[in-house]
Design brief:
The complex is a heterodimer of chains A (399) and B (424). With 399 residues, chain A is of the alpha+beta class. Chain A contains 15 helices and 10 strands. In chain B, β9 and β10 form a beta hairpin. Classes of the chains: A alpha+beta (399), B alpha+beta (424).
């Protein structure tokens, strides 16, 4: 169990369930947290559960499932206000008891709640095309990752959702989920007595037995897909194969490249495509360091889609050919270090960071991390550029 | 420098009042804290389309405040964003109905970034060329929103609810309306609204009080003039709706319903208005919040999904409630919700729920104070309203169950507008 003692005005209890990621379990892991936080043995309906949370000064659960390399991580986080501010000495105990019941006390799931969650997930699929950006992201993932698990929907497919039954879900929860690796992080103003109390109640921790892996297929010939629909803009997604992962020595240099290319207002893509050419309002880049991929996304006028695609690709090629400048490197280092320090003021980031460090055995201190960023050279960044290979171009556009 | 302490919330605010009328509010956070969050806010937003200077009434196109927010980053030497990046800080801006905010987060170079922010605001640089270039960028932003069916619905419903009030326009305006914006109109707005007298600067997080005090003392010496804010003119909005009901057939995955309730505005002081707004949102939570029997019923009868949402707006002469849902039974849901508000609501309001929600609202204030950015933004918002974020807890204590029940009186059947996007 990890305790982070500080002076935030809320206390977070985060519980992480980790298992090997599989296609067949995605739908279970997506739906299950929603069921868990909707009710439990004592609070058997949504109304009772929500009333209890309201009584705890609007305490709330946030749930998430994500893929980290070959792991699937379900997080369930309960956030309560700091008891002293509301002068309620029993708040911590009540919050803890609720969390324990939500996670572990489910003899049976309420059938009506299960059916509601299932229906809502089906409707989410049925309305996917209404949200053009999400639809484009989903289709891009399918094409980019193809048979890789990263291309499989995190919520399972529509067919998976339709097939799931209450019995199968109950069996999954009891036989598999409760036997997942479990890690608990508590973050907030807690004293040593609180720690003893929490350790006495939350006794379920265990480590994952499998090694962490980050792998992706080799580069392939460029795949280009244009899909027409009813819309005003064209959404461009340009995917690059970029096999540099979180634990690689070149990781920090890869983040520097990401900053220079497209993740800051000073970036080449923002300055060239938006500010100089006026082709778009938004252009951004995301670097998936667990998958080894970079995706550039932008929304442009439909008639300018080819021009924007050409400009983006030409810009990246130019950068690959000529490298980055010393000034760009210096500014990107400042920006990157600022991002790291700034993130330390977020309670949620601190909570998640503590879990990831524990899961992946990262022990580097902030000071060491900042010092290692200072040591990045132009050669390092240019080496990362050599690993950037255009892979998939997906365009969703209006007619 | 005035020091105000809010012991129950463990918060301190230092206030500097400059000769020009500009105020600097500092909300320090004790170590460990790495970031300083700075927000310069101006009480000029998307609703301020008409203003009076002397005897002259000036009218600007919808989207002007948002356009000016974009264009203020233009500097003679280039894009101001670049200098923020060079200093290693994150800069951003936003336009709401009532204010425009320019902000940055720094973990170093706070004073140089503050100096750059003020120089940017004090250096309007509008040219025909850069205004035309910005029209292309903003047009793409507006088109992006037009590809979101929910935004399209909301824009349409507000047009159905309001005849003349600027609330009927999207904050960004339309692709057509921004074509009427010129460097001259931007400069005129700038001159009247962006002078130092009207600004609030909120600084939260890691702060060096002496350094900040010295900086603003020097700034004050150079910019001591006081300016009066022009009078904002809101056209007289009829109580009735333009269109009661509208149905369109759309190529969507599911039918969508948007209900708008036009509420009669009340003119009163800021704290009473905040209390009134809280009473409305409590009423809505008790009726349709996640612990309400009606919410449970709607879920059980498959009438709503996770997209169900309620929004309230309390702008001058434009107060409303908007309820959005995606549903396969759109007419049944519409009937049920209208029946709830016009016939049954008083049956569902109860003191037990009211007491629970008082606790929830106290919790929400604390949650908001937990995040530096959120705290600074809300502090500025309440300041421009004429109140204080830290007074909200006291205002909350004054709300009675009767206040909540009284909100129902302002909901009239003839003031409910509905828009349905029926699945083709």
């Amino acid at each position: 169990m990890i305790f982070i003692q500080n002076d935030f005005k809320t206390i977070q209890f985060a519980v992480y369930f980790t298992d090997i990621d599989k296609e067949s379990t995605r739908v279970y892991r997506f739906l299950l947290p929603k069921l868990l936080v909707a009710h439990n043995n004592k609070l058997s309906s949504r109304i009772l559960m929500n009333q209890e949370l309201e009584n705890l000064y609007g305490a709330y659960f946030s749930t998430r499932v994500e893929q980290l390399g070959n792991f699937s991580v379900v997080s369930i986080v309960l956030t309560i206000v700091e008891p002293k501010i509301v002068e309620d000495d029993a708040l911590l105990d009540k919050g803890l008891a609720l969390l324990k019941d939500v996670l572990f006390e489910h003899d049976v799931f309420n059938k009506a709640i299960f059916n509601e969650e299932k229906r809502m997930l089906i409707e989410q699929w049925e309305t996917l095309k209404d949200n053009r950006r999400l639809y484009a992201q989903t289709k891009f993932n399918e094409h980019f990752f193809e048979t890789d698990l990263a291309g499989y929907p995190i919520s399972g497919t529509l067919a998976d959702v339709k097939k799931i039954t209450l019995e199968k879900m109950t069996k999954y929860y009891k036989k598999i989920f409760l036997n997942n690796a479990i890690k608990i992080v508590v973050n907030g103003r807690i004293n040593d007595n609180d720690i003893k109390k929490i350790e006495g109640i939350m006794t379920q921790e265990r480590r994952i037995e499998y090694p962490f892996q980050t792998i992706f297929r080799d580069p392939r010939p460029v795949k280009t897909i244009f899909e027409e629909t009813e819309m005003n803009q064209a959404i461009l997604k340009v995917g690059y194969h970029f096999p540099i992962f979180r634990a690689d020595p070149l990781y920090d240099a890869a983040v520097i490249l990401d900053t220079i290319l497209g993740s800051s207002p000073n970036s080449r893509l923002f300055q060239e495509i938006r500010e100089k050419q006026g082709l778009c309002y938004d252009i951004n880049l995301s670097y998936d360091y667990y998958k080894g991929a970079i995706t550039i996304t932008s929304g442009v006028d439909t008639i300018h889609k080819e021009l924007a695609l050409d400009s983006i690709q030409a810009l990246v090629e130019d950068m690959k050919k000529n490298g980055v400048t010393q000034n760009e490197l210096d500014l990107a280092k400042i920006y990157y270090k600022h991002q790291i320090k700034n993130s330390l003021d977020s309670q949620s980031v601190l909570t998640k960071r503590a879990f990831i460090r524990d899961l992946l055995f990262y022990h580097e201190s902030i000071e060491e991390r900042l010092a290692s960023i200072d040591k990045i050279t132009m050669r390092d960044v240019n080496e990362t550029l050599s690993k950037l290979t255009l892979d998939t171009v997906y365009v969703l556009f209006g007619g | 420098m005035i020091k105000k302490e809010y012991k129950h919330l463990n918060e301190i605010v230092y206030i500097m009042k400059l000769k020009s009328g500009m105020e600097v509010h500092i909300l320090p956070k004790e170590d460990p804290c790495y970031s300083t969050y700075v927000e310069l806010s101006i009480p000029y937003g998307s609703l301020h389309l008409q203003y009076k200077v002397g005897k002259e009434i000036k009218t600007t196109p919808p989207g002007t405040a948002h356009f000016l927010e974009h264009k203020i980053y233009a500097m003679p030497e280039g894009d101001a964003f670049q200098e923020f990046s060079n200093l290693g800080v994150d800069a951003n801006a936003m336009t709401s109905h009532n204010q425009t905010s320019y902000l940055f987060t720094a973990t170093q170079n706070v004073i140089p970034a503050l100096s750059h922010l003020l120089r940017m605001i004090d250096t309007p640089y509008f040219t025909d060329e850069n205004v035309e270039q910005e029209k292309l960028i903003i047009a793409e932003e507006l088109k992006m929103y037009l590809d979101d069916p929910n935004t399209v619905m909301q824009n349409r419903l507000l047009e159905n609810m309001y005849y003349v009030h600027p609330f009927r326009h999207d904050i960004g305006g339309t692709i057509e309306s921004i074509q009427y914006i010129s460097k001259e109109s931007l400069l005129d707005v700038y001159k009247h609204f962006y002078n130092p007298s009207n600004r609030l600067i909120t600084i939260a997080g890691k702060v060096d009080l002496d350094e900040i005090k010295k900086f603003f003392k020097e700034y004050d010496e150079k910019n001591p003039e006081k300016h009066k804010l022009p009078k904002i003119i809101f056209p007289k909005e009829p109580k009735r709706l333009c269109t009661r009901n509208e149905t369109e057939v759309k190529n969507n995955g599911i039918s969508k319903l948007l209900i708008g309730i036009k509420i009669k505005s009340v003119r009163q002081n800021a704290n009473l208005q905040i209390k009134r707004e809280m009473a409305y949102t409590m009423m809505l939570n008790i009726l349709l919040g996640p612990s309400s029997p009606m919410f449970d019923k709607l879920l059980k009868e498959k009438l709503i999904n996770q997209s169900f949402s309620i929004q309230t707006n309390f702008e001058k002469n434009a107060e409303n409630i908007l309820i959005f849902a995606e549903t396969k039974k759109v007419y049944i849901l519409k009937k049920l919700l209208i029946h709830l508000f016009t016939e049954e609501a008083h049956l569902y309001l109860n003191e037990e729920s009211f007491e629970r929600y008082k606790k929830v609202y106290l919790g929400q204030v604390i949650f908001a104070l937990n995040n530096i950015e959120n705290k600074a933004y809300l502090h500025g918002k309440y300041y421009h309203m004429g109140s204080s974020l830290f007074d909200v807890v006291e205002i909350l204590k004054l709300i009675t169950f009767e206040d909540v029940v009284a909100t129902l009186e302002s909901i009239q059947p003839k003031a409910i507008s509905t828009l349905i996007h029926k699945k083709a």
